[in-house]
Amino acid sequence: MIANTIGVSTWCLQQLTFSKGVQLQEMIELVASMDVDALDLYDEYIPCYPNVNLYELNEIKKMTSAAGLQIASTWFFNDVLGSYFATSLNWTVENTKKFIAITAALDAKYMAIPFLLNVPGIDLEEAYDSYRRVFEKLLPTAEEYGIYIAAETARQHTPGLALRLHKALASEFFTICPDLEAWRFDTPDLPLVHQESDKVSEPEPLNILEECLPYSPLIHYKLLSIDAHGEEPHFPIPEIMDLINDSPINHHLCIEYEGWIPDIKPDADAVVETRKCVELVKRYLK
User: Fold this and answer.
1) CA-CA-CA-CA dihedral for 164, 169, 171, 175, to nearest 10
2) Phi/psi zone of residue 146: left (φ > 0), alpha (ψ -120 to 50 degrees), beta?
3) What is the pLDDT of residues 247-260, one digit of tens each?
4) Coil, strand or helix: which one is 13?
5) Any alpha helices (H) in 146-246, and if so which ranges?
6) Which pLDDT does position 199 carry in this prediction?
7) 8-state DSSP, 42
8) What domain count does the chain have?
9) Residue 60, Cβ density class (10 Å: 0-12 exposed, 13-18 middle, ≥19 buried)
10) Is the overall model pTM greater than 0.85, yes or no?
């Protein structure tokens, strides 16, 4: 029996910080009340970077453990490709090593970072070569700390690019973190251009997700809204869940409810909607 797990990211509940000043401890307690396995911690709630304070990291671990949760993953908005071209290979690698160390200090297993194609004039091949140079130098540190790098892939054909890179690097410590945004389809209420990029790209084929899953222990389970029937109408959820349920490995499904952002439903109650997201995933998960 495959033991998939479910986590709720702090991303889901940021609305509470913006509107009510809710801080991390209360947020952890809310996540614990949703009967999930873990907390997924995003960099907005890791206040000790770049001046790392081990005491503060330990306090976060203690709060999470006291609530009956573990920290499954971290996420840092670390634009590896942009940094590589704006600074240097060495600076980019050394900076990212700090994120690996922070993740290890939090006893998390995965460090997710965006896998972006946002440098003007750079084609897929040059992006691939640049990413490969960076991750070849990062992997020894990831292996030393026992941290799995999770390349968060969404649109612009990044799932396929990360799959190619995984095969080239041949390391279990470079993994693919599919973001369901890559498989979201266009709907009248939420056109594809709404948030991720001003460049519209069609949804990735589901067979790309199937190919990625054996190398995707962490999945960013983005959800935008739950309808009156308890379904998410913007993604092919039944088909995605069939692939996950039939996958040969365990997955940690990190729920990312994003409906609270301004161009979706900013007045929606993030706690209520996140609970609905948890219920949806549990209903489909075997």
Assistant:
1) -40
2) left
3) 999 999 999 999 99
4) helix
5) 158-169, 206-212, 237-245
6) 58
7) E
8) 1
9) buried
10) yes
- Could you tell me the two tokens for 248? 């040969």
Rounded Cα gap, residues 224 and 105, in angstroms: 32
174-224 pLDDT per residue, tens: 999 999 999 999 998 888 875 545 555 689 999 999 999 999 999 999 999
Structural domain of 113 = 5-284
**Given CA atoms 32, 35, 37, 43 in this order, what sign does their dihedral have?**
negative
Q: What angle do CA 44, 223, 36 make, to 5 degrees?
A: 70
DSSP state of 179: B
Distances (CA, A) of 167 to 96, 163, 172: 21, 6, 10
Pick the closest to residue 241 from 215, 272, 224, 219 (CA basis). 219
List the Cα angle 244/182/81 in 5-degree steps.
Answer: 115
What's the burial of 256, exposed, middle or buried (CB within 10 Å: 0-12/13-18/19+)? buried
**Cβ contact 87:58 at 8 Å:** no
Residues 20, 22, 27, 30: what is their CA dihedral angle, to the nearest 10 degrees? -40
* pLDDT of res. 84: 96
Structure tokens at 15: 């609305």
The CATH number of whichever domain residue 135 belongs to comes to: 3.20.20.150
Contact of 211 with 164, CB cutoff 8 Å: no
Among residues 148, 169, 277, 283, the alpha carbon closest in space to that of 216 is found at 148
In 95-208, at which residue ranges do the beta strands (DSSP E only) sit?
Answer: 110-114, 148-153, 174-178
Q: Which residue has the tokens 């499954």?
A: 72
Looking at residue 198, its pLDDT comes to 54
Hey, what are 52's tokens?
């790392």
Distance CA 53, CA 57 (A): 7
Which positions of the chain have pLDDT values less than 50?
1, 196
